[in-house]
Structures are given as structure tokens and as C-alpha cells.
DNA sequence: CTGAAAGCGCTAACAT
DNA sequence: ATGTTAGCGCTTTCAG
């Protein structure tokens, strides 16, 4: 294994010079730099990560904690993870993959050991058990999702309330007066992930402002379940003409069922989905939709982490530990929803009484 | 930050004793161990990962390289990643998340720097560019997927050939004589990922042995595309009664289309899918399917890595570098497919000429 | 602009 | 059963 010392000898310089060529923290004369760089090439030198972490007390690793549960928004989770990984690399950082399986303690383990310099937590619940640990951790963290109390935290999420309002606006503009929401599985609401509730809140608020009626029915992804939800909707509100779906696995079944029941989309019923574009465009009728900006969420999370890492330079590791940490800044970055009009929404049908 | 030395002082023992309590590599008397453990608790000690890696030349990290592409088998990829993460933790290892975005060089970077002790590569293609680097890397690697030449490599995958044969067997037993395969997107075949071809090979082999006819049509996931494939199938072989689908995003549209065309499943047409159970059970007709054992693939990959890490103890890092590495063992672990019969397959309809 | 040298916190011989 | 100690490879003062 090639060490920095060997590179130094080979290049005829001191170890520190090689180190500074690598880090760029000191001005090095062009000829020296070139000699060193050539030696690095020729010897095939790779700086040892452990030694570097030990000496600098930075691992250049960001931990990403993902939900183990694989029942919801899988493509979105995946896209966020990939965005985090690529953005982190673009900033010279690596990503450590954690799952919530290990429990909140994982935060302490990874930060305490210096394995990671910072954390990104996905799928944050309203009263997340990891929050206490995040607060006391001496390293930055960014949450994807919005807990109930964001004081002192840094969070990124889609503005789901605005998303709900936007869907209603779109349908209202097309003349729809009776709306229904096919929501997430009941378990999602019980888990208090927040985003589902926020969507409903947005829908209700805007509907109230515009004087529209709304019916909300939770729904598992299965065909059966969608059928049930749909039946109850038309049973209770036969005049429903606009549907908002927030459950990507429900969109396929929904369109099948509507067709089966002789309801044309968008002539009889308009459908707006909250789902990835890929899902929206692969259905029999291309769906008007609000996409979850997964890539941007991942990218923003990393950028916020990087900002906090630069900011906390002098403070964080500073000197001995007993100094009270300064109260942390609260940052809540809600991404604006964007609705793409496709083939599934149209003018509300004339009432034929 | 609490160090091992502080723990040692607090417990009134030497540093090495603390170290050995932690690693269990030496027998420690019960009272001493308890004292040390109490000190560790009281002081809130976490061993420093960098120092440990430097001193032991092991990071206890396994790198997992995932495809960035998010167009295929996303839930499967996700499940593999989660299985790798949890299994690795169960073995006291952490997982570093890499993407193929960085290129094959990532292998060298991560291994060369000692960041990871071993690698798991997902989505391995027949002629994968990472293979040369894997061969020359001084650390173990496990591939998920099967390259063209497996010599000296360790691979895990579903036995897709057997999967193809199994699907045909199932349909043949039910009396079907004219089969069709709705395959992966053309791009998948062009990329030479291997698994898609192997499935077709298995289907063809078994069909030939049993004297059945088979038509294979690639297919994108979209509704349009499935409609096209289906149309061509019934156009060329109107007597087709059994369909094998290897494209999870095609199953929803397929069932819709069949219903729309007045073909009952399974009375007129039997459908076997190669897809996750979750997909198979959420459709309007529960699908007879062969699941891709994603969790097991991830778990096995980690177990193979662990085995190689234990095996390569003396050899790997041993002494100076110029010693020729011994030729590596070839391990190809193909998982047997299991077919679950559900509602989408049944006796072939009687011919009504 | 470059060197010398003191650690960073831990592991693993080598002692006893 | 435990202690002593020499590094592991790098970063970063402190000197020039």
C-alpha cells in the first residue's frame, strides 16, 4: 500500500508538502506541485481514509437514514437516495446508508464514533423518536419531512398544503364543484407522517374558500381497496366530478375502475394525481399531476448539510465539550408544488338534472 | 470527546484492556470487564471510527454500488439495498452507498483509500466495465447479477433460466400450448443485463422440450406499449392462451387491456408474472407469479462478503505488495425460483374450432 | 514557499 | 489476566 511518505520520498519533498498539494490549503510552486502529482500518478497513491479522518476529525461522510418499510413511495425514496448520493459526491462526500431498523440510537453511534460528519433523515414523522438525538448531537442534521416542532431544526419537504390547494384550484377552474380525495392507506395517517394530513388540510382550506364540497377516503393500494373507496364516494356523493389521488399505487386501479363503470376520463370525471411523473405518464390516460420533487429534495438536503458543515467550522469541534452549544437556527425549506396538466382533467360536465 | 484512554483511566486499567473488552479478543476477568463497561456507559464513550480503521486497517464498511437508473425494478433494487444494509448491521458492518454515476473508478477509490473493506455490485451487466477493477482490487467483491465470464468472481442472482422454464412448466401442466412472453423494454436487452435473455432462454428451452410454441415481444412499461405488444401477439398467434410477463410495470395495463378486450383471466387467458409479490397481489386478479427474491439476494451477498473477509485474513493485507495474488475461487450462487399459484392461471380453454 | 515534528485515538504485538 | 509501547498514515501547527 502506497503511503503519503512514499510519495514524498519519490517526489523529493516533505510529507507536509504532499499533504498540502492534496488539500490545496497552502500555495505550492508549480514545479513542486507537478512533481508531486506525477509521483501520485506513478505510484497509484490513494490517501488513507482512516488516517485522514483521525488526523482531521472529519470523515467526509454523510449518513443517510432511510425507512426500512418498503410499502410507500418506493420510487420517491429511491430517487431521493440517489440524488443524495450523487450530490454528495459532487461535493466530495460519501454517503453511509442507515435504516431506521437500527432505531434512533444509530444517530448517536454514527455521530459519536465520528463515522459521519452529518446526517440526513428521511421519512420524518410528526413526533419522530430520532429528534431528541438530533438535537443533542454535536453534528449537523437535515430532515426530509416536517416534524410537528421544527424549532432549531433544518427541514426540506414538498409544500403538501400548497399541493392540496393547487389540486383544488385546478379542478375549480375547470368548473368542478364536488370533489373527492383518494388518500393514503389508513396506516399512513396513523403513523402521523404529516404529509398526508397536510395535503388534506390544503384541499379542505381551498375548497372552503371556493365553496366546494370535498369527501376524503383513505385507501390501500390494492385494486379491491380502490374499488371500495370509489364505491363509497359515488354512493355518498353521486355528483362528484373531480378526484384527487394521493397514493400512487391507486392510480392504475382507479382508471381501470372508472372505465369499467362507464365513466369517461376526463369527460365525466377529472383526475389529478400526486405522484411521480413516470407513473403519471405510463397510465392509459396520461394524468394531470403534481410530482413529488424527489431529486430536488435530496439535492437540497445535501446542500443544506454542506452549508451547515462550512458554517460550523470554528464552533462545533472547537475545544473541550462543556461549552453550551449556541441555539440552532431553524430552517424550513418547503418546495413549491408544480402541477402539470395532462389528459385526465377537463371541463366539468354540464349538470343534467 | 471521550477517548479510550480516558475510559482506561476512569476504570483504573490500561488502554489495551479497554480495547480488549471491546473486541473480545482476549479473556478479561469478569470484575475488570464490568468496571470497564460501567466506565464506558458513564462517560458515554464511542470508539473513534477513523482511529480504529487506521490502527486495524479495517473500516468495517461494505460499499454497495447501485444503478442510478431508476427505470427498472425499482422496488427490487430498493429491497436488495435494504437487505444489504440490515444484514450488514447484523454483522457489525456499515454500508457505503455508491452509484454507478461515478464510473468504475469508484471501485478503485473506495478500496484504494481503505474506505471500504469489500464491495457489493448491483445490476451487473454481461460485460461490465467494473469487472477489470474488481479483479485487480485487493479486496473481496460480490456481484448481484451474472456477467458473461464469472471466472474468479463471486456472484448471486435468481436463476432466471430456471424461472423461464418454471413458468412454461406451470402453463404446460394446465394444458396451454401457445405461449407468449411480454418481455422487458428493448433497452434492457440492448444493455445486456443478462437476466432478461436468460429468462427467454429458459422459456424457449422448456417450450421446445414440451413441444409448445412461444412468441416473445419486448415491451416498455407504458399502457400504450403493452397494448401494442398484446395486439401484435394476438395478431400473429390468435390461439395464444398463456402469457408470461417479465416487466412489472406491464402487469397492471395488461390486465386492464385483457378485460377491455373481453378476454377473461384465467378462463380465456392465463397470466404468469415475474414480479414482486406486492405487485402480484395488488392487481385486480391476483397473479400467479415468480417473485424475485430481492431480500435473499441482498442477504446472501453480504454473507458471501463476510465469508470472504474471514477467509482472506492472513493473505490479503499480509506483507509487501509485490506477491502474486492466488487465483480466486469462482462462486456462482443461483437462487431457485419459486412459483406461487394465484388466481391468474387456470386450465387452458378447450379448443372450439 | 517548504520542512520538521507532534499528535489524532486505537490495535496488536511483546512483555510479564 | 493485564500492562507497555510502537506504530497505523495523515494533518497541522511551528519554524524557517
Automatic annotation (TrEMBL), chains A, B:
Keyword Heme attributed: no
Keyword Transcription: yes
Family annotation (Pfam families): LacI (PF00356), Peripla_BP_3 (PF13377)
One MF term in the entry's GO annotations: DNA binding
UniProt domain HTH lacI-type: residue ranges: 2-56
InterPro entries recorded: Cro/C1-type_HTH, HTH_LacI, LacI/GalR-like_sensor, Lambda_DNA-bd_dom_sf, Peripla_BP_I
Domain HTH cro/C1-type: 3-32
Swiss-Prot/TrEMBL keywords: DNA-binding, Transcription, Transcription regulation
SUPFAM superfamilies: lambda repressor-like DNA-binding domains (SSF47413), Periplasmic binding protein-like I (SSF53822)
Source organism superkingdom: Bacteria
Name of the protein described by the UniProt record: LacI family DNA-binding transcriptional regulator
Organism: Streptomyces carpaticus
Amino acid at each position: 500500500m502506497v503511503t503519503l511518505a512514499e510519495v514524498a520520498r519519490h517526489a523529493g519533498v516533505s510529507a507536509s508538502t504532499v499533504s498540502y498539494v492534496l488539500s490545496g490549503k497552502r500555495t505550492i510552486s508549480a514545479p513542486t506541485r507537478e512533481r508531486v502529482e506525477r509521483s501520485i500518478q506513478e505510484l497509484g497513491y490513494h490517501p488513507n481514509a482512516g488516517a485522514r479522518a483521525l488526523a482531521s476529525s472529519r470523515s467526509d461522510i454523510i449518513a443517510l437514514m432511510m425507512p426500512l418499510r418498503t410499502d410507500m413511495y418506493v420510487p420517491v425514496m429511491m430517487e431521493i437516495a440517489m440524488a443524495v448520493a450523487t450530490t454528495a459526491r459532487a461535493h466530495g462526500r460519501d454517503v453511509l446508508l442507515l435504516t431506521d431498523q437500527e432505531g434512533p440510537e444509530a444517530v448517536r453511534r454514527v455521530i459519536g464514533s465520528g463515522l459521519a460528519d452529518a446526517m440526513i433523515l428521511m421519512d420524518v414523522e410528526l413526533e419522530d423518536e430520532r429528534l431528541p438525538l438530533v438535537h443533542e448531537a454535536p453534528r449537523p442534521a437535515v430532515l426530509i419531512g416536517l416534524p410537528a416542532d421544527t424549532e432549531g431544526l433544518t427541514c426540506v419537504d414538498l409544500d403538501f398544503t400548497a399541493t392540496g390547494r393547487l389540486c383544488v384550484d385546478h379542478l375549480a377552474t375547470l368548473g368542478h364543484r364536488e370533489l373527492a380525495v383518494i388518500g393514503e392507506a389508513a396506516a399512513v395517517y396513523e403513523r402521523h407522517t404529516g404529509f398526508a394530513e397536510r395535503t388534506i388540510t390544503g384541499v379542505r382550506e381551498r375548497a372552503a374558500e371556493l365553496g366546494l364540497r370535498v369527501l376524503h377516503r383513505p385507501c390501500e393500494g390494492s385494486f379491491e381497496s380502490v374499488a371500495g373507496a370509489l364505491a363509497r364516494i359515488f354512493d355518498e356523493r353521486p355528483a362528484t366530478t373531480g378526484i384527487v389521488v394521493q397514493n400512487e399505487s391507486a392510480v392504475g386501479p382507479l382508471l381501470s375502475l372508472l372505465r369499467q363503470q362507464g365513466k369517461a376520463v376526463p369527460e365525466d370525471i377529472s383526475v389529478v394525481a400526486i405522484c411521480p411523473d413516470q407513473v403519471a405518464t405510463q397510465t392509459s390516460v396520461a394524468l394531470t399531476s403534481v410530482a413529488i420533487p424527489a431529486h430536488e429534495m435530496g439535492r437540497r438536503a445535501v446542500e443544506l448539510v454542506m452549508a451547515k458543515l462550512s458554517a460550523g467550522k470554528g464552533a462545533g469541534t472547537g475545544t473541550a465539550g462543556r461549552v453550551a452549544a449556541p441555539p440552532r437556527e431553524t430552517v424550513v425549506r418547503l418546495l413549491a408544488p408544480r402541477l402539470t396538466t395532462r389528459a385526465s382533467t377537463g371541463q366539468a360536465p354540464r349538470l343534467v338534472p
